[in-house]
Amino acid sequence: MPNAAPSSTAPFNIVTIKTEGSGPRLIVLGAVHGNEICGPRAIERVLAEFGSGKLSLLRGHVTFVPITNQKAYERVQREGDRNLNRNLGPSEHPQDFEDQIANALCPLLGQHDVLIDLHSFHSPGEPFAMVGPTDNTGSLQPFALAAQEEALAVRLGPRRLVEGWLETYAEGVAARVKRAEHSDDPQLARARLLNTDPRYGIGTTEYMRSVGGMAITLECGQHDDPAGPEVAYRAIINAMAHLRMIDVPAPAPRPDVEVLRLLHVTDRLNTGDTFVKAWASFDPVKAGEPIGHRHDGTVVSAQGDGFIVFPNTKAMPGNEWFYFAGRSSRPLNLG
User: How many domains does the structure of the chain reveal?
Assistant: First the structure.
């Protein structure tokens, strides 16, 4: 394994494999959420293949962070003190463990060109990739690498791409601010402190794009799906092959890619809020179809024909209960 160097200066272990020549600078993260183990298992497998000589880096360098949030990982839970993948950025006065991680992680991201962040999700559902916005010069998430990001995303493996994260989260922030002004419900107090900040929707990929890189969140399936580590492993290999970093045939783009756009987020407001059934991510819904009930019996219905995304029966009051997505007309660069 050429020039592989672990690091102990950060609150997580880093392994970087370098070549002498120039080339892409790829970083792969696992366990940003501690109960999502597909990333660590896949990264361990890839590192073993570099170590045995089965894989050899041809150009550039690749950095692996198998367990990004060690505290959460040791506790086998989503977060240590808070959600690392929200409100991510350097902090002059770190307040919690995730702030300490961010102070090491953000500069590390800034040293790379491409990020693959490996995740899984609570409910059943098939793997998918989350991509950034189209090229724009707006204030929320300016971006100029959409074509390159799309060309990579369609080669990672999953057939479904999802866009619209930060715009939808910004809409959710506005709704939370309005609610906070008119409620004294103690269940919402902790959530108000965090998720009424417009930056709260910024995670690893959003931060990576803000410092000039491109980034993809790969959701590898349900947390305990035994196929998840294989999905994550294949995505790492495909990414390095597409970037011509390893001597593996470059993957072709999937011919059956479907693009959905997040349109709305609905928060859980009370522990008595319940779903009408056990929803899975990307279950289709029709306009007006009941999705859940508020604790007072109010029906929460689908705002149109579309799909349920990230339904979370364990959401804390004041946080995301589920997302609603529709089909996107976005043309993709298959490059």
Answer: 2
